[in-house]
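In the design runs reported in the main text, the only information available to the sequence generator was the tokenized backbone. The following block is the verbatim input for one such run; it is reproduced so that readers can re-run the procedure and compare outputs position by position.
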């Protein structure tokens, strides 16, 4: 302890408790993720079979392994332990929302975030599960950025304050906030987007460029699809389409700064189709 700049008194503030928040208040600039990676010795194993021999007949445990796999009930308990949690801290100009997922392979494509009408919505996909943040912020923001760590599984949503006032609290928790459920139970979240260009590839195929709304963070993984919803003759028609690479865009009007603000769709137009003829008739910038 004598080599620590804060001394014993500062270190003992976190004795016996989780010191993450205290560390972040003082050492946000430290790249501890790479430091901890070098300190990893190994991972704790489950109890060895020899340790279970001393149990009495009334204490027979559930089978710990089936052909090297955990039983279903054990998997469920393990899944519960990995529910993400979040915390926040602020500076004069920013508010940083930190989500701890404990997932060692967390990538930017697994995170979506939207800010509209002073409501921040963030969704994190973890295998077959969805973790949702839904908060009505206590103050307005100008914009935000999302940073992910594939080493620790930590996600930071950095909010740019509209004014430089100190926030007394993050805001109001809305229904569904801090929930961790199956993706199939979450439902689809739609955004109002803008069609910015339409290029003919051949006689019946178009390349559509769709602009995401402001304050939207969405990166569609390769091979995944998005849902398009369009009101047609009094009904809402929904169709899934897989985006293509932005390298297929012929007129490179968008600058490199616009990366991840657009989705590109190559769609074949069917004359008698229920959706594509109507989508093809949409006006640009609408």
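Verbatim output:
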């Amino acid at each position: 302890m004598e080599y620590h700049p804060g001394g014993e008194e500062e270190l003992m503030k976190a004795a016996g408790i989780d010191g993450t928040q205290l560390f972040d208040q003082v050492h946000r600039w430290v790249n501890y993720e790479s430091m901890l990676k070098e300190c990893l010795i190994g991972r704790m194993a489950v109890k060895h079979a020899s340790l279970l021999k001393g149990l009495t007949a009334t204490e027979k445990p559930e089978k710990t392994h089936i052909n090297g796999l955990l039983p279903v009930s054990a998997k469920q308990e393990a899944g519960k332990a990995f529910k993400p949690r979040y915390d926040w801290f602020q500076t004069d100009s920013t508010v940083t929302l930190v989500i701890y997922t404990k997932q060692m392979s967390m990538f930017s494509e697994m995170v979506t975030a939207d800010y509209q009408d002073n409501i921040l919505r963030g969704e994190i996909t973890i295998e077959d599960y969805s973790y949702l943040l839904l908060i009505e912020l206590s103050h307005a923001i100008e914009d935000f950025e999302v940073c992910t760590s594939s080493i620790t599984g930590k996600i930071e949503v950095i909010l740019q304050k509209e004014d430089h006032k100190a926030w007394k609290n993050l805001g109001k928790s809305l229904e569904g906030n801090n929930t961790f459920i199956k993706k199939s139970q979450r439902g689809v979240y739609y955004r109002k987007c803008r069609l910015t260009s339409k290029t003919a590839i051949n006689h019946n195929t178009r390349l559509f460029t769709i602009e995401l709304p402001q304050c939207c963070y969405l990166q569609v993984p390769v091979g995944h699809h998005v849902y398009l919803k369009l009101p047609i003759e009094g009904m809402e028609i929904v169709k899934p389409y897989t985006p293509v690479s932005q390298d297929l865009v012929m007129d490179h009007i968008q600058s490199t700064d616009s990366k991840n603000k657009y989705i590109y769709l190559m769609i074949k137009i069917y004359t008698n189709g229920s959706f594509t003829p109507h989508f093809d008739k949409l006006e640009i910038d609408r």
